[in-house]
Amino acid sequence: MNSNSNQTPETLFSIRRNESSSIRSDTSDRILPVNEVDEDPFCVLCILWKSGKLGAAYFRSSERQLYVLQEVMDVAPEFGVTRSLFREVNPSHTLTTGNISDMFVKCIINILKGDNNEEDNSNNSHTLQTNTLPANITLLNIKDYCFDNCEHKAYNVTVSSEPKDLTVTQQEVFRHSLIGFDSKVTVHALGALIKYLEKNWSHINTSNTELTFLHINKVSLNDSVLIDQNTFNSLQIFDVKSHDSNFKRGLQSHTREGFSIYRLLSQHCISKIGYQCLRSILANPTNNVDELKKRLDFIQFALDAKNQTLIENLQETIKKISDLTFIFRKIQYARGNARDWETLYTTIYNMLFLHELCTPYVKSVAIFATLDRAITAKLYNLQASINNGLDFSQGNKRVRPLIKMGLDSELDKKELQKCDISKNATAAARIVLNQLPQFIDGCSVVYMPELGHFVVIKEWEANCDKKELEEHGLQFVFELNQSLHYKNALCTDMDKQLGNIYLEILFHENRIIQRLTDFVLSSFKEILEPLKIIAMIDCLIGMSRVSKEGAYVRPSINESSIMEIEDGRHPLLELFCTNFVPNSYFSGGESGRMKIITGPNDSGKTIFLKQIALIVYLAHIGCYVPVKKANIGIMSSIHSKIHINESASVSLSAFMLDLTQMSQSLHNAKKNSLVLIDEFGRGTTGDDGFALFTGALKSFVEMGDLCPHVVVCTHFQQMSNYLSGSDTVSFLKMDYEKRDSDIVYLYKVVDGISNSFAFDVAKAAGLDENIISRAREFYQLLCGDGVSLVDDNQFEPITFNIGDINIPDLN
Fold first, then answer.
1. Which terminal residue of the chain, N or C, has fewer Cβ atoms less than 10 Å from its own Cβ?
2. What contacts 677, CB < 8 A, 6 or more positions away?
């Protein structure tokens, strides 16, 4: 057993002058050295793409767990699933095969560069440097990492959660329960990851601990709604900001969440695991109807007034449930102190208590039924074993775990023997103290394994004579932390009587704790699965609280690609607007699937665009939505061209980025996709932008029944001349009123086509009246009204000969 506590001194008792009895130290003898297994957390992802199939595996150092992606199809050159996976995993280092000219490798490099633009994680990257690639990516040699070698690695991987004493057949069944060996690309990725970690562990690990895997988890993206990072940013799903303090900026642990959907929904989460689960849910919206129904059913249950007492009890219990990630690692490496073991016990106890609270509702609430299946008899046995074996009644929590009396008779005998001898030695120790000079206020007797007993006296003055006490029968041995250690007749006698009983007790306790540790690690899956479900319960209770406060309603979910949103509201903007104007949106079925919205600047077009997307998005994470009524069709993807973050590192103009996003939408959008386009074509000439925009929209229209749901905001009013003949297209505008030559926005979407009212907008923005007047003249001239831009009478004609121009000599 690996224990660094063997050389820790054990204080038997301390005696001070003028005290009637000795002060027994029951816990200081068990203080552990400050030597944690903490390190900079990192994540290594191995991702492979072959013949359209994507396989991946990744390892999180903070959890010591492997994750394997169920093999999935990913279409080139967009690689939408790959992009979603990177957004979810956010790896410190990436492994793949191929060369830098391969299409898939180029895609990964672009993704990593994009991530670095948003947030510099270079300080957290644990990498092996290369000369041809970014520092956080490694191209594996296919000869060294061939499929056969990697399959062998994956098949023979050892995890701590594997039960002990399994037969060969049982071991094979256990491995196949964790890894789908029929998914060749995923198995290849997992084996390559394991081999890479084993080969480079000494380079990437900073904690000097050996490489171990607690468990292997399966991850699936088959039911994910594909959303690109720009759309996430535009919709403000997450809004991570740097810390206000300069010296904390750039650290992942010191960022803060801005105004976002995550911040809105997380305000009622009460546990760390709940926050982590919510972030994962938001990053991976799903189109799995059964999963969405399960989440919506629970929110409906939580909102029911007759269930409020249960929900409050659940929240009170969840508060006592901790994230066990770091504690598992400490226990695994025999570094767990009494506080860690008590946290583990408290968490397991409250998991079981929460299960008991939910049991009466198993038949009516699906998520409770899932929790009921996850709770096993082994978990109850583990809770009982910890409770029967460890004593948490001591006040000092930074000590080694204390074994309960009565658990082991042999250990109890040794403890009683030690106690009896220590009591007899107390009287002798007082005699020793009385024989010492008056300037010695007190002393302690300690035991150090293999060195024996010592009388310990604090330095009574600076640079004191350590041998001054020899005439009192104390022989100086050594100094430690300003404490002088002496031997005397009492110490020699105790060494003879006790021998190595303290060391025997320590080893005996360690053997018991090791058996308990093995039980905990073998029960890792039984602990982890209920924790995931409880984290989900915490998330959904938080969503129910937000839904109640915001008067959200349950959306109906259909698989007919029909969108019906009645009086929808923007979930973030309505928090700041007391008179927010709701708007409806209908698409599919009897309604056209393309909506073209016109209106003045600042009239609410973009807000309406984002509002539609957010309502659809919230429905796909299983949350209630801010509407009067909603029937949401299941989506496979959401695409947008709403807001572009230009960057010099991208080497693309704003218009090129516009074209890139439009091209991706045209290639990837399907019938059950939502496409949002805001002011396309502003980065080029009006005629070019209009021609390209109209051509792109016509391409959508020509898809017929396969046309995705398209919502467009534009100032190209003339587009109605080219698209008005199709039943697919509907023209909407932002309503307004004219009051005393001023324009008043009503923020209501109505049928029709609107003027841009550019001059009114400029006036409302405070632009100088002379400039606006002159702009009107230009506009009338361009419209062919014959207004001259200049007064010819103000100028006299000038004639000159080009040959008369004096050109300077450049030499």
1. C
2. 640, 641, 642, 662, 665, 710, 711, 712, 713, 714
Distance between first and last Cα of the chain: 87
Distance, C-alpha 153 to centroid of its chain: 29
Q: What is the CATH number of the domain that holds 363?
A: 1.10.1420.10
- Residue 28 belongs to some domain of the structure: no
Q: Are residues 436 and 379 in the same domain?
A: no
Same domain? 315 vs 432? no
Please tell me the least confidently modeled range out of 27-41, 398-412, 741-755.
27-41
For residue range 307-325, what is the model confidence (pLDDT) as tens digits? 999 999 999 999 999 999 8
CA 461 remoteness from chain centre:
54
Which position has the higher pLDDT, 344 or 74? 344
What does pTM read for this prediction?
0.78
Q: Which residue has the tokens 């029951």?
A: 26
Residue type, 516: L
Amino acid found at 682: R
Please indicate, yes or no, whether residues 748 and 766 belong to a single structural domain of this protein.
Answer: no
Shared-domain flag, residues 306 and 440: no
Residue 194 belongs to domain with CATH number:
3.30.420.110
Main-chain phi, psi angles of 562, to 5 degrees: -115, 130
Tell me what pLDDT residue 220 has.
84
Shared-domain flag, residues 734 and 619? yes
Position 647 confidence tier, pLDDT thresholds 50, 70, 90: very low
- Which residues touch 423 (CB under 8 Å, ≥6 apart)? none
CB 659, CB 692: distance < 8 Å = yes
Q: Are strands 629-633 and 563-568 parallel, antiparallel or unpaired?
A: antiparallel
596 in a structural domain: yes
Distances (CA, A) of 93 to 46, 204, 682, 786: 9, 10, 38, 65
Contact 530, 351 (CB under 8 A): yes
Residue-level pLDDT at 653 = 63
pLDDT recorded at residue 36: 42
Q: Which residues contact 730 (CB under 8 A, 6 or more apart)?
A: 591, 592, 594, 595, 596, 751
Could you tell me the residue range of the domain that residue 769 belongs to? 756-787
674 and 782 assigned to the same domain: no
Question: Is the pLDDT score of 623 beyond 90?
Answer: yes
Same domain, 575 and 542: no
- pLDDT value of residue 759: 61
Rank 367-376, 572-581, 744-753 by mean pLDDT and report only the highest: 367-376
